[in-house]
Model the fold of this input.
Amino acid sequence: MVTQIGTSGLPFMKMHGLGNDFVVMDQRAGDAPLSEALIAAIADRHQGVGFDQLAVILPGGNADARLVFYNSDGSVSATCGNATRCIARHLMDETGQTRLTLTTERGTLIAEDAGDGLTRVNMGAPLLAWDEIPLAHQMDTLELPIEGTPTATGMGNPHCTFFVEDAEAVDLATRGAEIEHHPLFPQRTNVQFASLIGPDHLRMRVWERGVGVTMASGSSSCATAVAAARRGLTGRNVRIDLDGGTLWIDWRDDGVWMTGPTTHVFSGTFTREFLDSV
Done:
């Protein structure tokens, strides 16, 4: 039972970036307790609201805000690129600013208005060393000793990217679940299957750690772009088509920039009846 939330309930926003969907709670005015049971109840797409990630906005100190992310299984995620873009757009609309600093477990991220309704976030430098990703032991992160020789990349969370002839033909639910729990990844991993469909143009499908199949993933797109450039398949500025739409990734000297659309679907309040049932 939730007992420390006001009688009016618990406000939230529903947002998505290319179908990668989020429940966002603005707690800058004061924290509300978020137990694993409450997160799981909110994540239920039949009896709650449903989300790929839950994001909490907290006071940022010297930054504009601090963000904390949870997967739908209740586990903590260090970063979530699409949720960061959604929240950045919300804060820009709220304040009139066109550039923000947001702190996450990944570090301090810069967000900008990219024009034409698009939002751009610098997701930071990719982690390429085996112990930073992390992997279970020392190895070449460019081609892992797994069937299909995927590439490992860290973007604050681990990623395993397979380059295949046809991403559409992959049994994503089966292969994603297998690779997420592969012993080479002690913290589990996000899994991507990508195909080259043109110069600097990739088609990618995503299995997210702690979530499952998702329509898009920002950090996965960043990791895939980095992996493709490292393997000489593309340059460092690529278009990635996901199940939910398109992101543009630019691996620059100052970090990996991700640009794409966002949607604030609705705002609502979790009632006392729902909260007391948890």
